[in-house]
């Protein structure tokens, strides 16, 4: 099966070229969805050989939707643009789809470890919040996931196009899982490792945006 790699990127000029170069052996096409970066993200990605498209200025979820529509291959792999994910893990990530055992595969940091969890308040909040969301999703949709927020994931393109994703922001990760489960698609997990962001700064202010995730779950539970 062929792979489209979709990389949402907002102000990631620090290393996007290297990332695109290092991913070439693991994808049949690379699409960088630029979030109207004020730096040279778009030019760097394009010179490194990626196809560059722009999102609609609504956030990471918006970038995912643009990326899925743009992708032309059998499987769409999503990977962050900050060096947190290792492209050499793509073959392992897509394996359950290739074996026809899953339609969506989430990279699990619980199973593969994360260098971003440093024991400070910010990562503690992310860990507790993410754990609570996963617990509720597991309980309501009768699954056994260890993780619902990792951006390193793979979905069958035809399934991705049918998901009717509404989330436009960082809440897209959990929403994609819930939409799959509601539509009876198979969701699997594979252990992947998360590295520390290697350049630039995070675009997710944990305290100010925490409500987003629980609000999305509320909307999803009540089909709003
Ligand atoms: N296209 C696009 N990408 C975004 C946007 N916001 C964040 N990203 C990208 O989404 C990925 C994850 O964001 P990041 O700031 O690392 O979040 P964190 O890992 O939760 O701290 C990175 O590749 C960002 O560049 C956006 O509004 N548009
Ligand atoms: Mg990051």
Overview of this protein structure:
This protein has 224 residues and is an alpha/beta fold. It has one domain: Spore Coat Polysaccharide Biosynthesis Protein SpsA, Chain A, CATH 3.90.550. 42% of the residues lie in helices and 16% in strands. It is built from 9 helices and 7 strands. A 7-stranded mixed β-sheet has the order 3-2-1-4-6-5-7, sandwiched between helices. Helix 6 (121-141) packs parallel to helix 8, helix 6 (121-141) packs parallel to helix 9 and helix 8 packs parallel to helix 9. The longest helix is centred in the middle third of the chain and has 21 residues, at 121-141. The termini are far apart. Magnesium ion (MG) binds at residues 80, 82, 84, 197, 202. The site of magnesium ion has 5 residues, from loops.
Quick recap of the structure?
The protein has 224 residues and is an alpha/beta fold. 42% of the residues lie in helices and 16% in strands. A 7-stranded mixed beta sheet has the order 3-2-1-4-6-5-7, sandwiched between helices.
């Amino acid at each position: 099966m062929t792979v489209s790699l979709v990389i949402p990127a907002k102000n990631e000029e620090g290393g996007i070229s290297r990332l695109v170069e290092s991913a070439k052996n693991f994808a049949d096409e690379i699409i960088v969805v630029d979030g109207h970066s004020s730096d040279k993200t778009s030019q760097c990605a394009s010179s490194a050989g990626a196809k560059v498209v722009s999102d609609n200025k609504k956030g990471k979820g918006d970038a995912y939707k643009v990326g899925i529509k743009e992708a032309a291959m059998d499987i769409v792999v999503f990977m962050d643009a900050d060096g947190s994910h290792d492209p050499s893990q793509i073959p392992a990530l897509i394996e359950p789809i290739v074996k026809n055992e899953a339609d969506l595969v989430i990279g699990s940091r619980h199973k593969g470890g994360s260098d971003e969890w440093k024991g400070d308040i910010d990562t503690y909040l992310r860990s507790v919040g993410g754990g609570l969301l996963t617990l509720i999703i597991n309980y309501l949709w009768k699954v056994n996931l260890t993780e619902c927020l990792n951006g390193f994931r793979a979905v069958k393109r035809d399934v991705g196009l049918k998901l009717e994703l509404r989330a436009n922001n960082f809440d897209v990760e959990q929403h994609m899982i819930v939409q799959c489960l509601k539509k009876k698609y198979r969701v699997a997990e594979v252990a992947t490792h998360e590295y520390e962001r290697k350049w630039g700064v995070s675009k997710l202010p944990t305290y100010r945006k925490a409500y987003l995730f629980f609000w999305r779950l509320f909307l999803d539970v009540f089909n709003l």
